[in-house]
Amino acid sequence: MTSSPRRPRRTSAKVDRGNPRGRLRVAFVLIAMLLSLFGARLVQLQGLDPSSYADLAEAKDVVKHDLPATRGQILDRNGVVLAGSVSGRMITANPSVTAPHAPELARLLADELSLDYFSTLEKLRQKDSRFAYIARRVPAADARAVMTKIAEENKGRESDERLVGLRTDDDPIRDYPAGEVAANLIGFVGTDEPLAGFELNYDAHLSGKDGYTRYTQGNGYKVPLAENSTVEAVDGKDLTLTIDRELQWYTQKVVAQTVEDYKAKSGVGVVMDSRTGEILALADYPTYDANSPSSASQSDLGSRALSDVYEPGSVAKVLTAAALVDAGKVKATTKLKIPSKLNRQDRVIGDWFDHGTLKMTMAGVIAQSSNIGTVLAADSMSTDELREYLVKFGLGNRTDVGVKGEARGLLPATMTEQNKDRIVFGQSVSVNAVQMTAAVNVVANGGVRVSPSLISGAAIAADGTEVGTDHTTRRQVVSKEAAHETMLMMERVVDPEVGVAPGARVPGYRVAGKTGTAQRVDEDCGCYDGSYSLSFGGFAPADDPRFTVYVVVHAPAVDGGGGSVGGPAFAKIMARALNRYGVAPSGSEPNQTPTEW
Q1: Which label site among 21, 73, 117, 317 has the fewest CB atoms less than 10 Å from its CB?
Q2: Which residues 6+ apart lie within 8 Å of 336 measured at CB?
Q3: pLDDT at residue 198 tops 80
Q4: 384 with 396, same domain?
């Protein structure tokens, strides 16, 4: 019996394990589940509580090191460095590593770097911290020495960063190679911030922007594939001054010697380019070494040439004379009869020397510095007209040369006949030294006031003021003819036969100038304190002015006047400037405008 063929048995549907499409479906499901987990974690980190996780990473894993920007240099007009940065190092610690041996490290660091032991110990022991500054701006040689010593004391055990926990990084140190030269202007930088002078007032220009590097650390090493980012530092810009380092140094030397010789309280010297208004030297004494400002008196850190105000005395007669000539009231040869005393509204006006009735020209009044003659000549001008001229000369307004703390000076808003009599010969009005230099320079510059500058090019001061030679302004104060006529009077001041300041002469050059002897005001009582400010301001060559120089000596303890004290200092500084810049000697003799009639 034959059997019939067997039918295939039915089986239930099953996934074919050899089918690739099946395997892909499984893989996609697994990937989707994994991405879901990552997404949920990302939402948690970034959306639900991002700050707490960032803080945790910062505290436990992520290390941040600053990358200091290189501060811009401060340069003189010839590119000579007055302030710059030299190699330095910062020393930082990983307290999670340094804590176990903090006492010995703190002792060594304190001894070698003159740090406070207890504050250093505290930094080395900071809980839950992986970064702390131990010392900033350490000279590179000192930093190398202390790290070498630490390594030597840790022989016998590993002394790399994982165990010792200290490291060094670049941290430039501010250096002032010229020391005291222009320190009152330049100022200085502290450990973490600028503290005075141009360093402070132009910090935004000089400082640049620090960068940083961040990385995740584990057991003293960077963790691969973890956070590792760097923002590069942007270096600061250089600041170029109009100052001439060599002339600045010499001017400071002369002013310091004059102050010492006359046992004075302080002194100032200013050298200005008559044509451009650029200040080539601005000397203050006492001064200080910008590399060690902590050893100086607080009162010596700024520039007295701009912050201190005083009555200018008879140098102001130059402004009065120029205004009178410009207004057509007088000439150099105008005749005046000078009594021994002059009874005015509220007081008796006298001269610095005893005399009977004198017959002087206006040139003689300036040459002999007669208060009485100046007041009589000024009677021809109204109070409003005189004040308008003085404002145009720059009195009562800051020069805005870009020095923080510049004083405005004082020019009465309302000029009466009484204070006018005193103002015309330099009392009842106050100025700063740069203000007065710029005013005298009007006569040197053909009657045009050119605004003074200390910054070459352009810069923006901390208060937003735009300063520098790019912003120089010019305005006609008196006519060119009036300026020349005033020069003729000023030149007679240094004439040894008729003037009061023969010591201000510079051999080979015609010099025009004016003396000043003014009583000093005590700020506490608002009264004269019995001391004087002695000064001399002028320009040379008188027939073709190149430089204007102004010297002031405050409160000398030795007798003298503006001519005998300020005049010789003026002559030394002027001679140096003329020689340094190769100005040819005058090709003509001083004028002989009559001083008497």
Answers
A1: 21
A2: 359, 360, 361, 362, 365, 373, 376, 377
A3: yes
A4: yes
Give the Cα separation of 377 and 397 in Å (integer).
26
375: left (phi over 0), alpha (psi -120 to 50) or beta: alpha
Condensed to tens digits (0 to 9), the pLDDT of residues 556-597 reads 999 999 999 999 999 999 999 999 999 999 989 999 999 999
Per-residue confidence (pLDDT) for residue 48, from 0 to 100: 52
pTM for the predicted model, two decimal places: 0.82
Higher pLDDT: 379 or 4? It is: 379
Identify residue 258 by its one-letter amino acid code. Answer: T
265 within 8 A of 283, measured Cβ to Cβ: no
> Which CATH number do you get for residue 73?
3.90.1310.10
Predicted local distance difference test score (pLDDT) of residue 15: 46
| CB-neighbour burial class of residue 118 (10 A; exposed 0-12, middle 13-18, buried 19+) | exposed
358 CB neighbour count, 10 Å cutoff: 19
The answer on 189 and 164 residing in a single domain is no
Would you say residue 45 has pLDDT above 60? no
Answer with the one of 138, 171, 204 that is the final residue of a domain.
171
Amino acid at 196: A
DSSP string, 142-199: HHHHHHHHHHHHTTTS--SHHHH-EEEEE--EEE-TTTTTTHHHH-EE-SSSEEEHHH
Whether residue 436 is contained in a domain is answered as yes
- Verify cis geometry, omega within 30 degrees of 0, for the bond prior to 286: yes
- Our count of domains for the chain comes to 3
Residue 467 corresponds to which tokens in the numbers above?
């300063």
Q: Say if residue 2's pLDDT is above 80.
A: no
- For residue 382, being part of any structural domain is answered with yes
Structural domain containing residue 499: 245-289+302-580
- The residue whose two tokens read 């015609």 is 510
Position 55 in a domain: no
- Which residue type is seen at 513? G
What residue type is assigned to position 592 of the chain? Answer: Q
| CA dist list (Å): 433 to 178, 284, 312, 553 | 24, 10, 9, 11
As a whole number, the mean pLDDT across the chain is 88
Looking at the structure, do residues 569 and 429 belong to the same domain, yes or no? yes
Contact predicate 566/535, CB 8 Å: yes
